[in-house]
Amino acid sequence: MKRDLGFRSSVEVSAIVSTYNAAQYMRGCLDDLVAQTHYQAGKAEILIIDCNSPANEGDIVREYQQAYPRITYVRITERETLAGAWNIGVKYAEGEFVTNANTDDRHHPECLERHAAELRRHASIDLVYADVFQSKIPNEAFQDNKQTILYRYKPYFAPEVLFNYQFGCQPMWRASVHDKIGLFNRDLKAASDYEFNYRFALAGCRAKHIQEPLGLFLERDDSLSQGDKTSTDEQGALRKRYISPENILKLYESEGWEVSSSAGQLEAFHDLSIRASGFEFPWHPGRRFQDPEVALVALTAAIQLDEKNPVLLNNLAATLYGIGQRDDVQAIYSRLQGAQCPEVVQQNIVRLQAGGERVELQLCMSLTYSDAQK
Fold this sequence. Notes:
Blueprint: E1 13-19, H1 23-34, H2 37-40, E2 44-50, H3 57-67, E3 71-75, H4 82-92, E4 97-100, E5 106-107, H5 111-121, E6 127-135, E7 150-151, E8 172-174, H6 177-181, H7 192-202, E9 207-218, H8 230-242, H9 245-254, H10 262-276, H11 292-305, H12 310-322, H13 326-336, H14 343-354
Parallel strand pairs: 1-2, 1-4, 2-3, 6-9
Antiparallel strand pairs: 4-8, 5-9, 6-7, 6-8
Helix pairs in contact: 1-3, 9-10, 10-11, 11-12, 12-13
């Protein structure tokens, strides 16, 4: 996708605002954006994409346009998905860098400036993202937030896209990313950002985490991500499409792992299965989650390469036990009876034989190879 518009020399960042029936947030959104240091310095533009809203966002925007330059208002004649609106914004954008600015979220006054500075500083980086504080007060300004709940994101590691969306609510990316991977998927109503994340990672694009809170995320029950099952259903469909042994290896290769040999592939599959055994979602700070679906895909692929590996078989058994498939667990451990196994595996066999209502089966964290792979 090549854009026809050239860059205005003064505009570095294009902030895209999609709106539909969000007049209650529009003044706060515009106050937040025109107060950005980058906007005040003449280096940012604001693009409002009105998706045929029945509310009066247009009146509010036109009022601001009288006082502030570099605010563009585009009203389309039909309801559009969020992704479709972002695509329109990308086509209008004249900045070298692009960000989405949700009507209900707010920014640190230097948010755009600091994101842009990171992209200028690191020519090999395609996208940057920062931590955010949670807000439950509509139109709360960044400086008024009590800053008690922090959504802390992780440093970018491409394979972890298989667990969750990685970039938060206010990423900034180079407009040229769309030349590499295309626009957002407008057919998705609530998970287009996650689908973009998958394509971004699989294309070998690079992201950088800014380890600092630079925004506010408004937690509300009627948001696109939480209003109904749409987001969950779309994310489930994306997982079925993208979670595969081939994509796992491609993602690890993009991180510089050697995956041309069977040993390298085993290392990658094992590493991902261990990561899947315990991680945090930024929006649930302090809680640990597991992803047995990813772990099972990785472990099954690894065992196809080394079918007698006691570490891999043990970890497969522990994962299956965790999701209630106990008959399969017994069958796996019966294959390991009498084999030379790490101590953790031997202890698990003893625990399972001892029985009990709930047995804690431990993972082998370090990969060893069977005789066939040595």
